User: Which sequence fits this backbone?
């Protein structure tokens, strides 16, 4: 991590926390150079980077200012509290009716789970695909099914190593996307009827998988910025026979919360004490806005208690359906379950990704993607501040492409969803993120699509509907 | 189906049944022309075809003879009988230890589940892949995940139609290979603890899936040529609360049995009477040796009671991991389960197959593949007759690439497996095909690889090991 990147991240944190408010002037180059003890050119480089990330903008002859989101920026949502209990899960029909609404390509896709496909290097991937299927030795189409493409395994292990996680190659199981990995992890450590701790709000697919496997949910509150409430988790682990935890420790979906390194270490200690395995869903890891990737809980794992799940679907190659899990002590069992479920992810897709990771310029693509997403986040935040009622609360995650809105208690998110859809706008209503159908006045909005006049207009329409409640 | 193909199939049936024995002269062209009431040129065409299929050979100035397998051809195995009971399944470790043995590329792959990858049009598929990823509109990588590639769905539905099965397009769910389809079908109609009727012997993955889903197996005996024992099934349906049947009605693995059309219709009536759904595993359908494809039970389905599962893995594109199910009344539930399990099979793999099915010459490839497999079957049968003890029994399926051997009761198939592996030869021992660990003196051998001196020598080695018991 270069000096100017570090400086940019420090200033970005000040902006994100609100200490440097929208419209405010950022310190002059001379001032910053003195404060941080770096050269003027380092400050310049940092400011260029922040401009590129959409956080600050230059005004002629006046220096740099924090990008103006609104006169009154929106506040952060508050963390839920309350007693935690085990719940049967029954959300699938609701979730599918919401997902079904996304089919129409003319709908404004604020409800989508994916960024715009135009943000991915699909032509370059197509070249990697063409080349690797042409050069593939015929025996590989069968041989690579059992353990996966060896070069892909090596490339994934290498990325773990570069981000400071030591991992024996044998722990890696290549899967048909992270969704299969998460399913297999859960099956490897639970029986029907068991209790699983999940986040509240949680990614709706988590709830669906629990429902499918007849597991009970123990919903642990998540702070919108700091992640899982450890006290609540500790209490639940004490009281309830929890068999596994399924958490997103970085860029949690839908809140975008990222736990600090210290908190991640504390989480690991807690789970280790109870010998409860952690399924760490880390599919947004590569979409951090700062220069430094967040470290997973897996990096503390000394006992193989953490199953760390990743994927290329959100950051490189949606539709290729290639993910993986670093399965710790459960790796062998996960690999066997995989052979009994789908046998293998597509061998050509694996080969294409292996080629791309070696020759395609993955890190260059990721840098560009992160800047685009961060800049689009700024656009949506600014638009929300313009069009949504002043009592609206919203997250401001340091990565990914989701914002979580908390509206006035009067707003019925499911009704909002239906009214918005009638106007050609999709969104993900709060109740699909909870087994207990909480978050009835919340919604997740996707800013993964290049900002345009249509989006701006859709935000204005949403604002009118919200105000009408 | 052309006249000469029909004639060829009639004579092939006589050879397969043993009425026309190895070494015997087939009727002269003039004689056959009179008997069957066809022109001499039709007979010539039929004989050329049979020669190509490896069933007869010409001798100079003497006419055509049934290809010589042995002085004494081996007999057909006998059907098991005995009381049928529900059994817990616990075979996975044994199966995985057998499958693990296949990793070494220098092993003679008689134990493999796949034909040789060299029998597939991989370079042509690679062209379809290169073209379709290059031309794919970017929105398709995300949009095609939910319902699958529309052109692939259309091509699959078309093939059903051409083989006489009427199918609403909505019944089709594209899956990550047939293995996922079968898993999802079973989950859509059972709960843990339920009873499922399967075949005995059964494809070992069937047993593994039952084990994984905590279902109990009711093993119905299979006749080596005629398939499922319907009386036994009727009795079991009467006595036991069976929730679903999972059968391969054509080219059953491992026996190669194919039920007649009449028997398939009777099976459907029986299941309809009990309102028990059928999961029809039909992944070898395209590998029939005759000109006419066997009709699935699905073709009788008037109530949506049959879930018909197919795949490209055994006949076109192993490793691409694309299969499907025509799910009848369960289609919606299966589609939902798929979205909660793997979301979607690889989108590029689907697009490549859609392109190949339109432009690649699939039927030409299949004709060639079938002739190769039939001819290799003849070679393995001949080799077995030369090298295996005379009391060995063997199947002679009308398609696919497996032979099922029944050895003297003295032979311990697991011991045979270990001894053979020590000599660099893999095979699939009988006990992995049964929840009750039956078939202890049986084995499945794969003839899906072009016959060569190494195979011949491996058969001789196996023969010596078998005789040593």
Assistant:
């Amino acid at each position: 991590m270069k000096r100017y990147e570090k400086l940019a991240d420090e200033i970005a944190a000040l902006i994100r926390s609100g200490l440097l408010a929208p419209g405010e002037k950022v310190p002059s180059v001379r001032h910053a150079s003195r404060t941080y003890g770096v050269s003027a050119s380092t400050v310049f480089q940092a400011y260029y980077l922040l401009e590129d990330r959409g956080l600050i903008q230059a005004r002629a002859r006046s220096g740099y200012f924090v990008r103006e989101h609104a006169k009154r920026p929106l506040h952060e949502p508050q963390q839920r509290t309350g007693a935690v209990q085990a719940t049967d899960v029954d959300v699938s029909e609701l979730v599918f009716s919401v997902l079904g609404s996304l089919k129409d390509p003319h709908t404004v896709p604020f409800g989508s789970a994916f960024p715009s496909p135009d943000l991915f290097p699909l032509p370059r991937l197509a070249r990697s695909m063409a080349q690797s299927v042409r050069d593939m030795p015929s025996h590989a189409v069968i041989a690579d099914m059992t353990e996966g493409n060896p070069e892909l395994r090596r490339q994934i292990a290498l990325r773990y190593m570069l981000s400071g996680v030591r991992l024996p190659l044998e722990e890696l199981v290549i899967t048909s996307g992270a969704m299969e990995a998460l399913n297999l992890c859960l099956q490897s450590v639970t029986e029907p009827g068991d209790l699983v701790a999940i986040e509240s709000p949680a990614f709706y697919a988590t709830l669906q998988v629990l429902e499918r496997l007849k597991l009970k949910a123990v919903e642990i509150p998540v702070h919108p910025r700091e992640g899982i409430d450890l006290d609540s988790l500790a209490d639940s682990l004490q009281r309830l026979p929890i068999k596994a935890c399924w958490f997103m420790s970085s860029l949690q979906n839908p809140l975008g919360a990222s736990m600090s390194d210290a908190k991640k270490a504390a989480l690991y200690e807690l789970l280790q004490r109870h010998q409860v395995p952690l399924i760490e869903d880390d599919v947004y890891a590569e979409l951090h806005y700062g220069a430094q990737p967040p470290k997973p809980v897996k990096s503390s794992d000394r006992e193989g208690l953490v199953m760390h799940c990743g994927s290329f679907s959100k950051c490189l190659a949606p539709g290729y359906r290639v993910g993986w899990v670093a399965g710790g002590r459960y790796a062998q069992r996960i690999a066997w379950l995989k052979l009994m479920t789908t046998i293998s992810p597509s061998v050509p897709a694996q080969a294409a990704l292996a080629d791309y990771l070696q020759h395609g310029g993955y890190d260059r693509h990721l840098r560009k993607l992160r800047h685009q997403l961060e800049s689009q986040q700024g656009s949506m935040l600014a638009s929300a501040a313009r069009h949504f009622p002043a009592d609206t609360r919203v997250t401001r995650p340091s990565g990914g492409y989701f914002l979580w809105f908390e509206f006035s208690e009067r707003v019925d998110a499911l009704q909002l969803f239906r009214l918005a859809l009638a106007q050609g706008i999709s969104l993900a209503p709060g109740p699909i993120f909870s087994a207990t159908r909480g978050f009835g006045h919340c919604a997740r909005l996707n800013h993964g699509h290049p900002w345009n006049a249509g989006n701006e207009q859709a935000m204005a329409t949403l604002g009118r509907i919200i105000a009408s409640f």
The radius of gyration of chain B is 22 Å.
